[in-house]
Prior knowledge:
By secondary structure, the chain is mainly α. Helix content is about 75%, strand content about 0%. Helix 3 (about 45-75) runs antiparallel to helix 4 (about 85-130).
Amino acid sequence: xxxxxxxxxxxxxxxxxxxxxxxxxxxxxxxxxxxxxxxxxxxxxxxxxxxxxxxxxxxxxxxxxxxxxxxxxxxxxxxxxxxxxxxxxxxxxxxxxxxxxxxxxxxxxxxxxxxxxxxxxxxxxxxxxxxxxxxxxxxxxxxxxxxxxxxxxxxxxxxxxxxxxxxxxxxxxxxxx
Length: 177
């Protein structure tokens, strides 16, 4: 569905009307459903990308938050028993565990973004280089669907996971939110 099509305009107008008809508490759920429906209508295979980002970001944020809460509980329970150096060592261990989840999430999601957006660009440059060097061999282009807004939602979700890692916000407990 193109942004300039009548179908898109009808979709947005319908969504706008329904948004103000549903109770305020359910508006976020309507927008979530409409977003996923829009991706599905554009191409069902796009759902794979956005669902992967959603699930991996939610799970990594949950694990990072779980590690943070366990640290707080451990420090509270042992605050009189642990010395300054022991507390520092415990925090460093926790930070390493959190960082592993952060890096895994970042690599997976930025890896998807890079593969989808830049694989054919890279292949074109390799083919140009091979042609320049006199080779007759050419790599075939990949047929990868490029979803609309993949950079936007990838960077948004990665900023969220970084905020969780930096302990700016608690992780969301509801996958749909």
